[in-house]
Amino acid sequence: MRVRRIVAPASFGKTSLALGYASVVFGFERVCWVSATSPCFVRDLDGGSMGVELLDIVPEGLVVFEDVPALDAHRNSLLEDVCRTLTSAGVEVILTATPASNPLPTCDACDTLTARDLMYDENELSMARMSDPSLRIVEGSSCPADRIAGVAMRDDIARERFLSSIFCDESPAVAAVLFESLVLGRGSVDGLVVGGALRSCFDYVEMHYPFVEVDSDGGEFQVRGFSIDVSIRAGLPYLKRMALAAGFEESSAFVVHLASELLAAGRYERVSRLMSSAVGVRTKTQWLRSHQDECAEALSLASVEELYESIASGSVLLSDALRAGSAMRRLFIGNTLRAFDILARLSANPELPAACRLKCSSLAFLHAEKVDRACRVLLHGDYRALLSKADAKAVAYLSFWLHVDDKDGGVQSVLLSSRKTLGEDEAHALALACAVHNARLQGSDVESIRLACVWAARYVSGRAMCLSAFVLLRELVAYVDVEGASPLVSPFCSMVERCQAQIASQQALYRRAHASEDVMRGRFVGLESGLTLMRSRPRTPLLRIKLFGGFQLGIDGVDINMEYFSRMKVRALLALLVIEADKDVPRDTVAERLWPDSSLSKARHNLNSTYSRLKKALTLPSGESPYVTRTQNVLRLRGALVESDTMNLNDVCHTMRFNRLDADGYNRLLGELRAVYSGELLPGDGCDYLVNYARNEFRHKTVDAVLCAARALQTQGENEMALLFARQAIEWDAYREDCYEMLMNLQARCGQRPATGETWSLYCRRMRELGMEPSLHMNKLYARIISSEGVA
């Protein structure tokens, strides 16, 4: 009689298959079920009497060893002896295990069922659907992931758990190969970053994980059934060890390598999702600065803009080049209100590179249906001054702007420049689009447009369509629609329609991601409204506010009279509005919070005076004061015009609490949190009720985030790193009991018993300062630690 091994990952139905066999063949009689995950299993195996003892329990029948763990060679030999003893006495034996465990690898008397043998067929899928009507049926599915027992017909939560269990169980090298395969989705086996160095691991993955499909030649692979978000979330807790196994010192370097592979394959949506979820703000910023133009040219707009917004929500160090890229994407995905404003400001910024300024000008010009000379001067300035510092890309844009008043709109100039300056096709395409747009507005002859069509024909001869080419062809098609000479550009029409459909899908993606009340109230406005805004407010300087560790305030390029902020209530009012940015705060609520001991009429009077001082302090040289508004008895601060350290802290705390990161990720976030939370809120203003309340709220929010990260690190086994977080929590709040509880637990786990005693003494001293005694819970914890009974 032979031993039956069932070797497959979790959720493939190993236990269900063994239960079915025990039910059908033995009716659950004369069956002994052994949990191999119990410590008793290894103890009894080492004792050498397990086989005889099992025969006393089941002299004949079935013994199932469930979830056999990874064993060394000696214990595998002992297990083989146990199985031989049982089978020689007529007892059937079934072992279930994961591929990483693989018990009895050298036993010849074994019949093995693998993961491929456990995949559902069509009949089993239908039976599963009948047993649970809530499950969705996958009719005729050819996707292997939909045929796995624990995954078939289930949602992303089940799929994430499935992958997470695999990453936890497998070796770092195998996990790295599997994670890369999931992230890439498809590609060449030889092109895998880790596959080349760990080809044997990929062969192992192909054998044991049938959802990784490989073609008959063994050269191409694909993974279906797992979204990029599910794959990333499942792999994040194990990213550091996977990166080390793949030869990278930092997990971020591993992620950037994968991003490069995705970029090379043109998988722009996936790469944006990867960078959004798997790296910190600094790495995101560096990557976006290097690749945003490449993604935009490939018409990947919505996901890249989401990546930008994930760093823009809390960062105060965004470069103007990143802002320009965001404005360009928003022009095409529909959010033109903010885009026009940004482009107008950046095009007039002398500190920006000439090419960046000119690109901003060109995009704004293209999206304005009627632009007179005065508006062009307002938007674009004197471009002849840029000639002295212009590079090849800037020269391409200047070929239009220096000839914007030519009879043909600048078409001839751009075509001449394209012959002289090679290698800047995308810049020339955008410049030529501006020239065609200008010619259409001026009513130029068709001959100039015919020449432009000849130049643009290169984009219909097999080249991949890019954003600049689409804009050019769209302008040509629009010109022909006006002139009624459709045969002139008929080859372009189908390409424009296809790209327009792709951009429409990007708009839909962005709208779905921002389906908020702001959008419903008209955040996405038409081009005419955007142009009106741009004309009326060509530039709104950014208000930068620092509240932690001291009050600092600045407006780009504007001198502020800080005497207005000498009064504590003015600072407190601004702090309240910053904390509640983009929210309507009732006037009476503000008055009651700032003057809780005054009557409502007196508090309103004080608020009017304080608001007037704040409004004057934030008034621009133009006479505008756009940052703070008061309408219908509510106050509001416009968050889009403000950058604040409180916003940054909220973003970092949210990431630390709700994102699943590795040790490097948490350590990076702690550094960012220390930089932002450089001291208490508005130090020196402690007598104000509102300031004290806000100060306590931010302190609790910060400590909650740090303790949450410490618990996550403890779960990952990173106790030394978690100690740093617990100590930081006590440094920021010396009177919270849960901080001391966390620190004492971690010190005990790390064998630092003297330090645990010091922490206990410090905790008792703090409690006595509050007039309290140590809690019963903390007394029990300390007693367990000093008695060596373990910790919670």
Description:
By secondary structure, the protein is of the alpha/beta class. The protein contains 36 helices and 14 strands. A hairpin with a 5-residue loop joins strand 7 (212-214) and strand 8. The longest helix has 27 residues, at 689-715. The radius of gyration is 33 Å and the shape is flat. Mean pLDDT is 80; it is low at 370-380, 482-486 and 516-538.
Set down the secondary structure blueprint.
Elements: E1 3-7, H1 14-26, E2 31-35, H2 39-47, H3 50-57, E3 62-66, H4 73-88, E4 92-97, E5 110-113, H5 122-131, H6 156-169, H7 172-184, E6 186-188, H8 199-208, E7 212-214, E8 220-223, H9 228-235, H10 239-245, H11 251-264, H12 268-278, H13 281-297, H14 302-312, H15 320-333, H16 336-347, H17 354-366, H18 373-380, H19 392-401, H20 411-420, H21 425-442, H22 446-456, H23 467-483, H24 490-513, H25 517-523, H26 527-536, E9 543-546, E10 552-555, H27 568-579, E11 585-586, H28 587-594, H29 600-617, E12 628-631, E13 634-637, E14 642-644, H30 645-658, H31 663-676, H32 689-715, H33 719-732, H34 737-749, H35 753-769, H36 776-786
Parallel strand pairs: 1-4, 1-5, 2-3, 3-4, 9-14
Antiparallel strand pairs: 6-8, 7-8, 9-10, 11-13, 12-13
Figure out the total of helices: 36
Overall SS class? alpha/beta
Major sheet size, sense and barrel closure: 5 strands, parallel
Low-confidence stretches: 370-380, 482-486, 516-538
Beta fraction of the residues?
Answer: 5-15%
Distance between the termini: 47 Å
Helicity range of the residues? 55-70%
Mean pLDDT score: 80
Query: What general form does the structure show?
Result: flat
